[in-house]
Amino acid sequence: MTISQEELDAQSLATLRQYFGYEDFRPGQGALIRAILGGRDVLGVMPTGSGKSLCYQIPSLLLHGLTIVISPLISLMKDQVDGANEIGIPAAFINGSQSIDEQEDVFAAANAGRVRLLYVAPERLETQRFVNFATHADIALVAVDEAHCVSQWGQDFRSSYLGIGDFIDALPDRPTLAAFTATATERVRRDIIQMLGLRDPQVVVTGFDRTNLYFDILKLGTRDKANWIARYVAEHADESGIIYCATRKQTEELADTINALVPQLRAVSGAASPSSSPIAVAYHAGLPPAQRERAQRDFVTDAVPLVVATNAFGMGIDKSNVRYVIHHNMPESIEAYYQEAGRAGRDGEPSRCTLLWNESDIVTRRRLLDNGGANERLTEDEQEQVRRWKRHLLDAMVGYCRTTECLHRYMTRYFGEDGEMPAGAHCVGGCVNCDSTFSTTDVSRIARTISMCVHDLGQSYGSGKIVAVLRGSQAKDVLDRGLDHVPTFGRLADVSQSTVRDVLNQMVSDGFLTITEGRLPIVMFGARAAETIDPAFHYEMKSITRPKPVRPARQSNPALEPTTFGGGHGGTDEALFERLRGLRLDIAREIGKPPYIVFSDRSLRDMATRRPHTDDEFLEVSGVGASKLSKYGERFMQAIADFEE
């Protein structure tokens, strides 16, 4: 018997309320689920924290057979499976950490219908054991998480994703195919559709703006970054955060610095340290697997509030209560930054994303890009195209660091969203640029002189030599090359080295100069170089005056956000929230799972505001379904009653 679309929609909504505890779908979810249940391939491009996983979890309960989820990181699968089982969805995973007998038990459970949702790493699709299972299984849906990894034009290409299309084609009965990502430009979307072989997919792009995130940029010297981070962590010691570093060595050094400095800073301010245990743990791919797993486990279970990591950490990380993400170095692209910063505030609560950068970060990123390893799957011409494309991605990231426009607007426009903000308007989530004032400095003389020096040196030297010549350096290398005899030698001796370097880099960003690729980058004239010899040439640089004190992140939409704490209950909501948070931690330790799997911060805040006393009232709390009511309702309602007494 054919089920009408109206009946499918009603079943989807009933499943949402029963299992997930939400009254209605978020933007994009309903359309994607409707298409999947109708047997149509889909591509969902939705921000981190917008509920992509729900788009395949609900169909897994309503479709006839098994849903396979292809997920890139083995370390996350257990949490994903725990989270699904916690709300009543029978889920399991297959990966290399299991014995053959354990894998066979999972296959048997899936074939018997006792598993509806099966997580698997892309590498597993090529093994004969999994292929044998898949060719005989009743597979209704294959969902590809982090689908941008299939695209050579994305920021996180993984060759293991290239076999997904072949795996689908080899199945005796082609299942519906659903691809999901948080970061995909139009070019990457086309690549995903082609490489995965999506057939006439319904493409849903819900918008890239994360209105609960406050974006901040701070230009700091390399030596100043660690102290700034330590002060921030000391002031937010009860919050969970991630700090991203460019190198493995930096993660370990910064974690050590934080663990040494933060207790001292809190003691000076009169605040007690949260505990005697470490505040920060380091995480990178060079650590032994057991140490890596322990670091991630300590972080997601709130045993330590802070992880200092390379970008090896966090893809698809499910921890919902990360309140801040700090980048110690500039990432290689807007996509990478959006993905990593977006791990803050997955529960929709106000959170902060801060990017620390300086000019040496740009030099480092260009060097890493130029020295990147070859991809044996590509021809030399194709590899050159990819290098040029990644240079373009880096230029956009540099532009983000230098821009004076709204940071939310800069990012959404990069991903192809149009729509101008009214003049003088603040962005919804908040950003340092909208909250700051800017002053301009006339640097026409400096810019013109830099351009003349590039000419004097025959477009044959890097930025370091140009700055040295302009400031009249007496370094042996400068004198041995006879560079003290060029007309512009010492012409900017009255200007600081940092200012000359800043103007030079700004001229690169604005197209007056260009820097070549390769091991020894050379500064050459850009497309606009001729403008600098015009007598009317005028060039300004903007400097930012930051707000003091910095305003905390605003609520994105009062109609959708929890009630403001401190109102409605005599200012006791925050105290009740902390009481409930303590209970959540106790329960999490009892069951051996991360606290956010019990309830998200958003659910606890809504609980503290609503103060439910009956089962029906408890089900009204955001994120509470039948399974969680049964498991935890009595204990949380008792805690609320005890608090009120």
Automatic annotation (TrEMBL):
Residues 570-645 form the HRDC domain. Residues 225-394 form the Helicase C-terminal domain. GO terms for biological process: DNA recombination; DNA repair; DNA replication; SOS response. The keyword Nucleotide-binding applies. InterPro entries: DEAD/DEAH_box_helicase_dom, DNA_helicase_ATP-dep_RecQ, DNA_helicase_ATP-dep_RecQ_bac, Helicase_ATP-bd, Helicase_C-like, HRDC-like_sf, HRDC_dom, HRDC_dom_sf. Its cofactor is Zn(2+); Mg(2+). PROSITE patterns: HELICASE_ATP_BIND_1, HELICASE_CTER, HRDC. The keyword Zinc applies. It catalyses: Couples ATP hydrolysis with the unwinding of duplex DNA by translocating in the 3'-5' direction. One of its GO terms (molecular function) is 3'-5' DNA helicase activity. Pfam families: DEAD, Helicase_C, HRDC, RecQ_Zn_bind, RQC. NCBIfam families: recQ, recQ_fam. Belongs to the helicase family. RecQ subfamily. This is DNA helicase RecQ. It comes from Bifidobacterium choerinum.
